[in-house]
Amino acid sequence: MPNGKFNGKVAFVTGGASGIGAAVVRALAREGASVGIADVNESAGHALSADIGVERTAFCRCDVSQLDDVQKAVEQVVERFGQLNLIFNIAGTGAPLAETPDCEPEDWNRLVSVNLNSVFHVCKTAIPALRRAGGGAIVNIGSVAGLAGDCGLGAYGATKAAVINYTRSLALDHAKDNIRVNVVCPGLIVTPLSAGLHDDPVLREAYLKAIPMGRMGTADEMAKIAMFLASDDASYITGATLIADGGLMAHTGFPNAMGTAEDSKAT
User: Fold this and answer.
1) How confident is the model at residue 196, as a pLDDT?
2) Is residue 204 part of a domain?
């Protein structure tokens, strides 16, 4: 049951209209926070705000790749609720699978703008507000693709690796301000970005086979992790990378030698 751990707190969530972002918005509201929802999807954003309650939420139409949009959205939230305590940088996008010679510059630039520049835009704009509030917490969303390489995902992985390392520098720079900064690295999660897997059962099965837990994660599971990192329960954690991938990154990628040995005995 909710215990109001964020009573009196004000949060700003990018990508807050769907997927992990929407799950975070709902979790924050259940725990007593007022929430600014930043997204380009106006219909979904307004619907989520209305569902939770417009007295507790403020939807801001915001293209996070544009600094001016982010500045206006943050100002709107601070003006509406009086302060800012928590930041969740969740907005992100993917791109078609491509090796570098076939990667279109516009796809590369879009990934950098949405996945990486957005984090800079929000932090540059919002950290002064967190300072005025006496501190706070920032939770960024990285990916396991930022911790290891994937075929055809070089551009996406580069942006997520940058977010992970940028998180570390932010944590060092702003520990003195009583601002903690951490990053969650999800594996394969059921969100709009992974919807294409459901159209290809063979590819989906191959992905699931690589995950020791044998299933995709959920947006609600990622929201719980983000909530923990933003809460006082994580008061001595900053600069950390928390992997939530069903055990995927625990594996070297080598075949199961025990299983192979048993198979050879059987034959």
Assistant:
1) 73
2) no
Query: What is the sign of the dihedral through the CA atoms of 179, 173, 59 and 90?
Result: negative
166 is catalytic: no
Q: Which residue has 């302060």 as its token pair?
A: 83
Instruction: Determine contact, residues 64/38, Cβ cutoff 8 Å.
Output: yes
pTM of the predicted model over 0.90: yes
Taking the CA of residue 214 as centre, how many other CA atoms within 13 Å lie in the half-sphere pointing to its CB?
Answer: 0
Range of the domain at 86: 10-191+218-247
Burial class (CB in 10 A: 0-12, 13-18, 19+), 119: buried
Q: What's 155's domain CATH number? A: 3.40.50.720
Backbone angles phi and psi of 25, in degrees to 5 = -60, -45
pLDDT digit string (tens) for 169-186? 999 999 999 999 999 999
Q: Hey, is 224 helix, strand or coil? A: helix
Question: 99: helix, coil or strand?
Answer: coil
The catalytic residue among 156, 166, 207, 236 is 156
What was the pLDDT predicted at 266?
A: 52
What is the C-alpha separation between 116 and 157, in angstroms, rounded? 11
47 by Cβ neighbours in 10 Å (0-12 / 13-18 / 19+) ranks as: middle
Residue 156 lies in a domain: yes
Number of folded domains that form the chain: 1
Distance, C-alpha 71 to centroid of its chain? 20
Find residue 58's DSSP bridge partners.
36
Report CA torsion sign: 229, 30, 77, 232: negative
pLDDT digits (tens, 9 = 90+) for 229-267: 999 999 999 999 999 999 999 998 888 888 755 554 555
**Amino acid at position 174, single letter:** H
